[in-house]
Design a protein that fits this description.
Blueprint (H helix, E strand, L loop, with lengths): L1 H31 L7 H4 L7 E4 L5 E5 L3 E2 L9 H11 L11 H14 L9 H10 L6 H17 L2 H11 L6 E2 L1 H9 L8 H8 L14 H17 L5 H9 L16 H15 L9 E4 L3 H22 L6 E2 L8 H8 L9 E9 L2 E6 L3 E6 L9 H4 L11 E7 L5 E4 L5 E8 L5 E5 L24 H10 L7 E4 L6 H4 L15 E4 H6 L3 H11 L1 H7 L25 H12 L10 E5 L5 E4 L15 H17 L14 E6 L5 E7 L3 E8 L12 H16 L10 H4 L2
Parallel strand pairs: 1-5, 3-4
Antiparallel strand pairs: 1-2, 5-16, 6-10, 7-8, 7-10, 8-9, 10-11, 12-13, 12-20, 14-15, 16-17, 18-19, 19-20
């Protein structure tokens, strides 16, 4: 009797507690449910999408935003991914109404057995509720609100809508939000191209994005991937063959892929600045798609040409010695050396290394990310092995020295260094001003200063054509004879001090034609021409080419390019000669669209030009084209004849003491400017002229840029004058 009474009382107590629990839960539900946030934020879901910049071929060259996002509609989501997510996160997703009571029971039993929290019971819907409306704190109140919100979401949205929100909003590591973005971040491909192995690894990330990040810990990520694949197999979503193939597939992570910027960092930064000026911080979240004028083919050609040119110049100047000397321990191992090199960046194929041993015949170095390599025999790009062990001009290399190395064409490691000089390449369409290529320096991550748009440097003799063009307006002709003889100029005509100008070669040719003087870049003739037409007239004439006269003081030194111009300003000026006399506005954006494809901006189409629009008349343009083609055919630009074309024109430029080297040239359709100099102006080296330092870069670029362009004479409208 006593036992039955105890059981009866216990049963009554449990029943009472159950009733009380139900009443409390009902009260909490009735009280809390109306206070839940509205779910219309989910039906009007607008993710923060990054700013994307595309080349004129439609290739992505830049992306900006605090979060990597890419929205994908549920109809475009691969079925394999849907199955993988459901298998990994919520196998009863299609049956429950926001809360998986079976899953809660299973998790409770598992946690009791393990004597700790080993399994959770959050459904996909509950995760959506948490991601959009709640914090991640682990409290009973938050979990209760999460469950109520899940019920509310299920009552207002379809399963497809909920899954679409989850697939696009969930954080998956590497600043990637959503599976579409994560697929590109981790594997460099859209979801539609992802394999089962890649999809199952992505589906394993939501549980702990940092813990299962394959870039940070591939071994742990593979373990999680195996769990997802086994779950899919256990639920009958994939076959045994699929399972085995996916488990053994070798994954290629995007961290090992080439930089997607296509070496257009300087250009992309220009676009970013323009967009933030227009849209502010919204530029990074509205999902703007910017279509630019840049050609990937032209850009890569410009980048490689500048890289090669600066490295060749650096090679001619010789090795400068190590960057620093590190205090490395006597006991050397890979881990210690990697730590020493951690803060030193790799630039393209230049890799930091530290000398660990040296003798008269070889240098042993440890190269960052590579290991121990030997520099010997052909181990220097500077010509002499003596440089490796010391010479009269360079201190001997020693243990601990920090150096740069690269592989040469024979696949041998060679001593190298970062170029001391900087440079720039820019090319524009002469008719429209559209920028096809813009390389603002040797490496954007080494020096973000854009030398194309920001470096105001003396253009030297590359500025002479604008003075000659002004002279043609005042009655000079290609056959006009001018005396190439020495003379002195007082300070009233120079603006600073008495001047005894010289030709670059120190020689004087006597009476010569204007054509010959420009081809050979005779300084004294240019000065006498400017004297004749007056500096003030020439200065005012410069505005026809888009130059700001304030940057070119009206003194005779202007004849030798003593003012200041950027490479982009020079490109705009030379375009007037190339296109028949019209001033164009350099631009880099063709159109801007929002995420839905609505057109927000479109560049104005080029209007038909008339004679009245010309900045200089047809006779002047035709004559200048002829004179500048002569510079290449038999003048200072003769190296450009290696391109085997008759339709090229241009002018070299070298400033005093070889501080700046230029080549400005064009074909009828393309204007390209190359510049080489040091950020802190100092001589580039003996005989480092525009012809030697800048022209080879121009040639290498134009070799690619002109491939699909047939030879073309000046427009007929310039001939029939």
């Amino acid at each position: 009797m006593r036992l039955s009474n105890i059981l009866s009382k216990l049963l009554l107590l449990c029943l009472s507690l159950g009733i009380v629990g139900i009443l409390v839960a009902t009260f909490a539900f009735v009280t809390a449910y109306p206070q839940l946030p509205p779910v219309n934020a989910l039906t009007d879901y607008k993710p923060k999408l990054p700013l994307r910049i595309y080349s004129r071929e439609g290739i992505l060259i830049g992306e900006f935003g605090q979060e990597h996002r890419e929205f994908i509609g549920i109809d475009s989501v691969p079925g394999l991914l849907k199955n993988a997510i459901i298998a990994a996160e919520d196998e009863h997703f299609l049956e429950h109404h926001g809360i998986d009571f079976y899953g809660i029971g299973r998790a409770a039993i598992a946690n009791l057995s393990a004597r700790g929290a080993r399994q959770g019971a959050s459904t996909i819907t509950m995760q959506v509720a948490r991601n959009f409306f709640l914090s991640s704190e682990k409290t009973f109140t938050r979990k209760f609100n999460e469950a109520l919100l899940a019920i509310k979401i299920e009552r207002n949205l379809t399963k497809d809508q909920i899954l679409e929100l989850y697939i696009n909003q969930i954080y998956l590591g590497q600043r990637a939000f959503g599976f579409a973005a994560a697929s590109k971040v981790y594997f460099g491909k859209p979801l539609s191209q992802a394999s089962l192995a890649e999809i199952s690894m992505l589906a394993g990330l939501p549980k702990a994005p940092s813990k299962y990040n394959p870039v940070a810990n591939l071994k742990r990520a593979k373990q999680r991937q195996a769990y997802v694949l086994n779950r899919m197999f256990g639920l009958g979503l994939i076959s045994n063959q699929d399972l085995e193939v996916a488990k053994t597939e070798r994954l290629k992570l995007s961290s090992a892929r080439p930089n997607p910027s296509r070496h257009a960092e300087f250009f992309v930064e220009m676009v970013r600045q323009a967009l933030t000026e227009q849209y502010g911080d919204e530029a990074y979240t509205r999902g703007l798609n910017v279509h630019s004028t840049l050609s990937v083919k032209h850009q890569e050609a410009g980048f490689q040409a500048l890289k090669k040119g600066l490295e060749k110049h650096d090679q001619r100047e010789g090795y400068r010695g190590p960057l620093a000397t590190l205090d490395i321990p006597s006991r050397i191992d890979d881990e210690v050396l990697e730590e020493f090199l951690h803060d030193f960046e790799k630039f393209e194929d230049l890799t930091p290394a530290v000398v660990v041993d040296i003798n008269p015949s070889a240098i042993e170095s440890y190269t960052k990310g590579v290991g121990f390599v030997t520099l010997s025999g052909e181990g220097t790009q500077f010509g002499s092995l003596d440089l490796l062990v010391g010479s009269e001009s360079v201190s001997p290399l020693k243990k601990g020295d920090l150096i740069y190395v690269r592989k040469n064409n024979n696949d041998l490691w060679v001593l190298s260094q970062l170029p001391a000089a900087e440079g720039a390449v820019v090319s524009i369409d002469s008719d429209t001003g559209a920028i096809h290529a813009l390389v603002g320096g040797y490496n954007f991550y080494r020096n973000k200063f854009n030398h194309v748009t920001q470096a105001k440097r003396q253009p030297g003799s590359s500025f002479k054509p604008f003075i000659y063009s002004a002279a043609l307006e005042r009655g000079f002709t290609p056959g006009t004879i001018i005396d190439d003889a020495p003379f002195e100029i007082d300070e009233s005509q120079t603006g600073f001090k008495r001047w005894d100008p010289q030709n670059y070669d120190g020689e004087f040719a006597g009476p010569i034609s204007l054509r010959y003087a420009l081809a050979k870049s005779k300084n004294l003739v240019a000065i006498r021409i400017l004297q004749a037409i007056t500096p003030n007239y020439a200065r005012n004439f410069l505005s026809r080419f888009g130059f700001n006269p304030k940057n070119h003081p009206p003194y005779l030194t202007m004849a030798l390019g003593a003012g200041s111009s950027t490479p982009l300003e020079m490109a705009r000026g030379y375009a007037v000669f190339a296109n028949g006399g019209y001033l164009v506005e350099p631009h880099f954006i063709t159109r801007i669209e929002d995420i839905e494809g609505n057109l927000l901006f479109k560049s104005k189409p080029q209007q038909t030009k008339t004679t009245s629009d010309r900045m200089i008349n047809a006779r002047n343009v035709f004559t200048m084209n002829s004179l500048l083609r002569g510079v290449i055919q038999n003048g200072t630009g003769i190296r450009a004849k290696s391109l085997g074309r008759e339709d090229l024109a241009g002018k070299t430029g070298t400033t005093n003491d070889n501080i700046d080297a230029w080549f400005a040239g064009f074909q009828r359709r393309i204007v390209a400017i190359t510049w080489v100099g040091k950020d802190q102006p100092e001589p580039l080296g003996d005989k480092e002229t525009g012809s030697k330092a800048a022209l080879p870069i121009w040639i290498d670029y134009m070799k690619v840029a002109l491939k699909a362009i047939p030879e073309e004479a000046p427009p007929l409208s310039l001939i029939h004058i």
